[in-house]
Amino acid sequence: MRKYTPKDNVQKKSYYTDRFWVAPRVPREEVEKGSHFEAVVDTLGKQVKESYVEVGQLVVHIDATENVAVIKTLRDKCGYKQCSEQSAVDYLAQDGEFELFYQLLNLDEAKRVRVVCRIKQGEAIESIVPLFKSANFAEREMFDMFGIKVNNHPYLKRIIMPDDWEGHPLLKTYPLHGDEFASWYEVDKIFGKEYRDIIGPENRDQSKIERYDTKRFSRVGYEVPFGADISEGEKEQAIEYSETILVDYNKSSKQLDERK
Questions:
Q1: pTM of the full predicted structure?
Q2: Using an 8 Å Cβ cutoff, are 168 and 144 in contact?
Q3: How many whole angstroms separate alpha carbon 100 and alpha carbon 119?
């Protein structure tokens, strides 16, 4: 286990200023001739609108209506037997579209392909559950978080949020700490709307930290008894490392030196 560095009030610090650093685009490379990725692109043929290599993996852009056909070809003819990830990105404000992606893995060749397509708001995408059972929960999460409907899904319903939740939390237009419905959800659900004036809205500000709360605020390296009075401060305690399970990576060891 690494040595712990105290992070007092880290959530109260300002992470952003008026001068934002914009990360440069990840370099894109052309598909190398005679490579495995070129064979994949040739197999897909005209279904590929654009292709390039990014961070060692092939990225192919396709039409959203051909997602099942393309992924079936990748599975049956190109050896991509595993769908490790599927989700979407909200580009509604910028382009008026969602970007959907499928992350496929070829275990025999140790290669990855990212299939990308775009749909407009209100459009649906065809389910790939008949091809990959692992897509079941991924498509439900996409529906739950973005509101993207998936045609022919065996059981399309929310998977994280309650069934009666309003809105989709991963949309960029969704408030960071929830909207008015979110702030009153538990009060309305448990007690009823008539208790709003009595109980008050739920505090959803995750950056709020009570400095002297010893019941819900963990302090690694500054542990105190449950409910202790620390208004005058607490003493720093050395972190004890386990000699049998955990490893102190600050200390030199023969095994770690060999790995380095």
A1: 0.70
A2: yes
A3: 8
Q: Are 123 and 100 in contact (CB under 8 A)?
A: no
Query: Are 154 and 129 a contacting pair, CB within 8 Å?
Result: yes
Output DSSP code: residue 55.
Answer: T
Of 126, 139, 146, 150, nearest to 68 by C-alpha is 126
Written as six digits, the tokens of 208 are 């709020």
Token pair for 115: 């299939």
Q: Residue 94 belongs to what H/E stretch?
A: helix 92-95
Which of 14-18, 61-65, 90-94 is predicted least confidently? 14-18
Contact 205, 223 (CB under 8 A): no
What is the gyration radius of the CA atoms in the chain, in angstroms? 25
Tell me the CA distances in angstroms from 22 to 28, 89, 212, one per residue in order.
18, 18, 37
* Secondary structure tally for the chain: helices H, strands E: 7, 8
Q: Which two tokens stand for residue 37?
A: 């990725």
Q: Could you write out the three-class secondary structure of 125-157?
A: EECCCCCCCCHHHHHHHHHHHHCCCEECCCCCC
| Terminal CA-CA length for the chain | 17
Q: Please give the DSSP secondary-structure letter assigned to residue 11.
A: G
Task: Fill in the amino acid letter for 255.
Answer: Q
Q: What is the pLDDT of residues 218-228, one digit of tens each?
A: 566 677 777 77
Q: Which two tokens stand for residue 144?
A: 């739950």
Residue that the structure tokens 């852009």 belong to: 61
- Residue 31, both tokens: 């598909």
Angle between helices 67-76 and 36-44 (to 10 degrees): 130
